[in-house]
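Weekly structure sync - notes
Attendees: PM, LS, DV (DV joined late)
Agenda: review two folding runs queued last week.

Item 1: First target. Sequence and structure tokens pasted below for the record.
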Amino acid sequence: MTAQSAPAGQRWTASIDHLGPTDAPSVGGKAANLGELARAGFPVPPAFAIAENAYIAAMDAAGIRAELADRGAACRTAEDADLDSESQSLQDLVRRVNLPDDMRAEICRAYRGLGPDVSVAVRSSAPAEDAADTSFAGIHESYTDVVGDDALIDAVLACWSSLWTPRALTYRILRGYGDEPSIAVVVQRMVRSECSGVAFTADPRTGARDRIVIEAALGLGEVIVGGQVEPDTYVVSKGNFSLVDKNIGAQAFAIRPGRDGDRRVDLPREDATRQVLGPGLVREIAKLAAAVEEHYGAPQDLEFAVEDGDVWLVQTRPITTLGDTDTETDTDGGTGSGAATTPLVHGLGAGPGTATGTARVLTALGDSARLGDGDILVAPMTRPDWLPVLRRAAAIVTDGGGVTCHAAIVGRELGRPVIVGTHDATSVITDGSVITVDGDRGTVFAGAVAPARASRPEPATLPPSAATTEPTATALYVNLATPEAADAVAATDVDGVGLLRAEFMITGALGGRHPAAMIAAGRRREYIDDMTAGVEHIAAVFAPRPVVYRAVDLRSNEFAELEGGDVEPDEDNPMIGYRGCFRYVREPELFGLDLDVLHRVRSRLHNVHLMIPFVRTRWELAECLAQLDAHPLGADRRMHRWIMAEVPSVMYWMPEYARLGIDGVSIGSNDLTQLMLGVDRDSEVCKDLFDTMDPAVLDAIDRIIDRARASGLTTSLCGQAVSTDARLAEHLVRSGITSVSVTPDSAARTRRVVAAAERRILLDQARETAAGT
């Protein structure tokens, strides 16, 4: 394609040592993290970044930017075959682009600044990549041993085009990215890797924070992330950097860098099974990893390469998939009616959880149509282009790979049980047979097998010596989004559901159809039936514990993404726009759907209660409650009426809300924080300002609790912060909150934090009493 001129005066590149975290929106997480490491003095190979504005300007100059965005958005509803075809067409569009002359010249000057005809790695660095909640592991392309101006430009275009691969399109759909995508690029001097690998500063399998897990292989590290070999695994104590455990892998070949391209080299038997890293290198890498974690203040996933005995860091990102570190383990395989308890295969447990389903042994991506929703994928290994298949699988089992390979990372992000490195799963497991995958232990059983830990007695029947938690005066609830997780969560030591997000069931049970579109199509009853079934299941497994159902609270931009969402208004700031209580006043038919669902559920199960979100003023709440009172559900006065406390005006209106008949308030800490501090909670640029522990936010929380208590209302907090910050949990207990509602994976840890806080309060009171006497 012929390029037009690009905007004058723009800079397209930046040296890596001039970048830091605040540059992530323009150069991507990968480049920003490398820049931060370089500026902090860590060993990072010289590099420069090509900012995302270069991609946007090049697409604009070629006249295809709008076409890419429109056709990419249309892929959200495409079937796999259509997605593949459209993806290839979009990639071809990008690869044919001719860069504007000034942009090409600047990129080539930056390249020559790394040295004459230096060999470089060209890696994608999307703005959302390597962020705190997403890794984009292996989603976009990278190229190694690129030499020369022309080869570099070709590699940059190839990186840009990988924004439109099926796996990239699918990943964005799964992670809910609705904005126009863009991509930056890192160009980095090649490290001639004798060996390379990855290091996790917390165990990605268990979440344990007191150890470092290192995986290493000979040659380039792509064989690890791609799961092409079983790497060595070294587990190192974070306290004294002593070796806790190691597993020597099996590597039949290595990828060696070379000027004529990477070469696959078959390894002799003695190299295939020898230890890759000596004790000194293991310790050095572990110390480097721990220093990086300390610098960032959060667990990290690093990539390293060793050249002439020197260790180089070529990438770091936050670990996005840590679970609760308090998962109980036992040595029993499990029990099941008529099922054998001898495992079929063993491997590395790389994604926690258990799943039972039909095994589909797929040896090539072309066979993926045989895998239905809920089947278990058994494969030699998965690559990033398998992502559209992984999203359908209930669990993933592979012959190769380590805990940091693509299947493991993406499987954990999708919440699937994952077992890798089994060596022989594809030959031992029979296609079409029913199997059970235990991702905690790395074992696969024939038939439907219930792990021993899943069938523990109810807490009330445990003798005192068997109790694993202590009771707390502060109730511990969980946040829940779908019926699928309800059975497992209900079996844990929680007091109920403090936040059931109705909107997530729209995208699940209803297949992503807009409620208004269903009403217009005469499918109102279908909506009620499907939603009722989901809520009833959750209420039944938690009964008699309470389940607080929050009415649908999608923002207008989120509603617009649903099928039939073209009726939504176009808002500049949907976060504080047409949503919550005010929307129910303007669209009583929407609120009526929630009321009908709850009325049906409560005719059989009385533990479900209603919560109204995003209440701004007294008059809108009064009108909303008038709709409730006019509905048959309004006569059910045993149903508690909650509101979300997200808008600071709730502090002023609390007594009036109580007089309107509200029974309780649940503090939404995310919205409250953003509105107290005036910072968009979704802003990457302003993320350093977003702090729920800010004294102003804590003071607002205290005032809400105090005024609610004075008005006779119960109080809870269901925001993300209480699940991740023990300080906030203790602060809430000391403030006298009635309950907290957390993510299921942090419930056990939060229960202990709450119990400890309650004990400290009693001790403080005892000391004060003693001092007074």
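Item 2: Second target, run right after the first with the same settings.
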Amino acid sequence: MSTVAPGFDFFAVGELPAPNLPAPEVAAIVAAEWGLEVELEPLGSQQDQNFLARSAADGDERPIGVVKITNPAFSATELAAQDAAAERIAATWPELRIATTTTEPGDAADARPRSIVAETSEGPLAMRLLSFLDGGTLTGDGHLAPQAVARLGELAAKSSLALAELEHPGLDRVLQWDPRFADRVVELLAPHHPDPARRDRVVEAAEAAWAIVASLADELPQQAVHLDLTDDNVVCRAEGGRRLPDGMIDFGDVTRSWAVSELAITISSVLHHAGAEPVSVLPAVRAFHELRPLAPAELAALWPLVVLRGAVLVVSGEHQVQLDGGVNAYAEAGLDREWRIFEQACSVPAEVMTALIADELGLTEPATGSREAQRSASPDAPSSEAVRLDVSVFADDVDGGEWLDDEALEERLALQALDAGAPAAWLPRGTPRLTASRTLSPVSPATVPLGVDVWYAEPQRLEASEHLSIDGAAQDADGVWIVPARTRIRARLGRADAPHLVRPEYAAGWLAVTLDPAPMLELGVVDRGPAAAPRAAPSLLERRDAAFAEVQEHYYDAPPQIERGWREHLADTDGRVYLDMVNNVTPLGHGHLGVAAAVNRQLRRLNTNSRFNYEAVVEFSERLTGLVPEPLDTVFLVNSGSEAADLAIRVALAATGRRDVVSVLEAYHGWTYASDAVSTSTADNPNALETRPDWVHAVEAPNSFRGRYRGADATRYAPEAAARIRELAESGRPPAAFIAETFYGNAGGIPLPDGYLAEVYAAVRAAGGLAIADEVQAGYGRLGDWFWGFEQQGVVPDIIAVAKAMGNGHPLGAVITTREIAARFRSQGYFFSSTGGSPASSVAGLAVLDAYAAGGLQAHAAEVGRQLKQNLEELASRHPLIGAVHGLGLYLGVEFVRDRETLEPATEETRAICDRLLELGVIMQPTGDHQNVLKTKPPLCIEAGSADFFVEMLDRVLTEGW
């Protein structure tokens, strides 16, 4: 029932048309009353009239405040309550920026507020000059990051806490925005909505939501509330590459209402933003609850109040447009936004959202329905022998991309079990199914079943139950379910409107309001799904942090649990599939069956170290030497790129009898002692430049984009590096080697200036040293047109260090040099690696080379890479944040800058963009010393459609915000 008195008449106390004074008239009043000469810029408002006031003094255009002309429906007492609320919040939370009424110059004790009732062309109107808060609001439809949403919830909680004890006569007012009156507002205004279909939907949803709220009304605490703490009424600061709210404006709706209304109104404003949906509000609810805990009744009322807010927005927006006769562009522009809020609020049943929120907050929400219903029917077949199938991310049966056959794979597995004699085969409830996933999708697919799928070997008769729904079976005249043999049926227990599969984000809510039919079908025990997991159990990430050295960082602050890969795709435990755009370790793609079979076969046969005599290590070494030009003909096999770079340096030191090495700034070569010593990337080690040993001498990074020499001037890097090498030799410290990536990879895939390696290699050789090519990232065909990076430079190194792609994820690296240089390493004693060059590692390397040839991966990298770079460059023409697109083949880097002239790195923005890409299904990470370059190095098998998806999602992020 309504909480409004029977005599309530909205039209008697509700809004009047918004004021519509001309700017010159308002400016004249401001000058006359407060002595301020201002230029006015209209600001939108649905019920009032607002202007941004700037100083009209010569050369001074700074904002000095916001002129607010209040709707004449509101009294002076109400305006006083608004000022009191603003001042109360400002005093309680000094760190927040709050728009309060400004005061005239004078002592604090007698300074008068700039608040008047002015005589205007529309009659007496209340006018105030409010403080201007810079940074802008979240107005618009751009994407809101979870951090921004959480901050909204925090602001709502702080408002609620500050206003909890505020008492003022101006709070006792009747507003159409007050959820306590939502039923009457919809009742009175819905008939005026011009679209009958929308009108009926709004009325139906509002009635259902009101029924829940009315039943809880007596338990909902009331207090003073801002009541309009929305995206339009918060101000922001830039933090971490995002605009995050840190203050609030517009106290025009301050009133007394249910305390939980503050949160309901705040989270409803999230729902119209790009990519937003009901689950998007959870960070705000969590942040609110942490500061101001929700009582059980408030939890139960929260989502119905969101639905009611959406309904009120829809009918009120249309009504305001009609009241203003088509002159209120702000109200008219908001109609589509308000409808989207309503649609999103109604897209998930309130009961499900309540259970989902309870799960998010760690609160107990009892499941609905009767547990007795789970035992009210049973099949004829015995259950103990029924085979439980598994198509989760952990299942062996989904190997090799078999999960892409979706339901066909499930059918095959079920029929195989029946053919083997099982009376039944079934797929359980609550376990995410990889077979229900998709490879390229900006939203998670529905992978979590609310019921079970069952195949019976023989026809079955299942007793009727009002709680049981079965798809794929019919009921006879007595209501008994007749289940055919060897045919899939889908059984659900509980809500009739429950879908068969739901998205993982909503699974906890749906599982809490439905039941498991498996026990009543005698298939297994009750499976309550993820909602029943013990909260005391630590998460996998917590276990990792407890047992795994912290310095071994992980991608993302809240990473998905990745447990399967296939080609360029990675799948998490929810069955969400991501596009992997960074994994240059697996050129053949993840889960490659050929490599897995070769290693598996060899491990069953023999695996030992390379001091034994076996064929695989010889054949693999021969294949490697066949890939390099003369005079390179000798191979060392190791486990990783770090070991390869380390060994390459040690070989050079031994071959020359020297101890000094020249490396390049901003480079990364590995984590062992020698490879770390020549690494100067401050992104990998902030202290890199201060901690180099005295035998390492770094030359300037040949960065033609943001280095000291750019564009055509980049040719100057090589002569200066060569001069440095000659200087070392003349000073009595001739270098043993010069080591550099053959493609400037750690900085984001920037090609070295033409002729760079030729001149520097010549200088180091003239000084008696050796040239080491670090091909760990660039080598093995990633550049497309060249198998090795040094080929692009037209040189041949003395020593090559290579790894990563060699084993497609199996630990494998190599140093390739000449017989003469390798022989000099004898002075250091013996060398061997327990697993470098082992039979298993060698056959892994051979399998990779075979797959390269069979799949034409180098040519594929060239073709897909050219198109990908072209598409990224087209994005750069539309998005100024992209300063450049570097690279060749599938070794690319998208560099973000805040200013294309100064090249200020957009470091924080890049991290935020990567987080948003993850939400859209793309794995991407920053690289470079400024961490402002997208490391675009996907598996070489990536399909053109996947590369296009990446570009499409990056375009979406740059368009919608992050």
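Discussion on item 2: The two ends are 43 Å apart (CA to CA).
Action: LS to circulate a short write-up before next sync.
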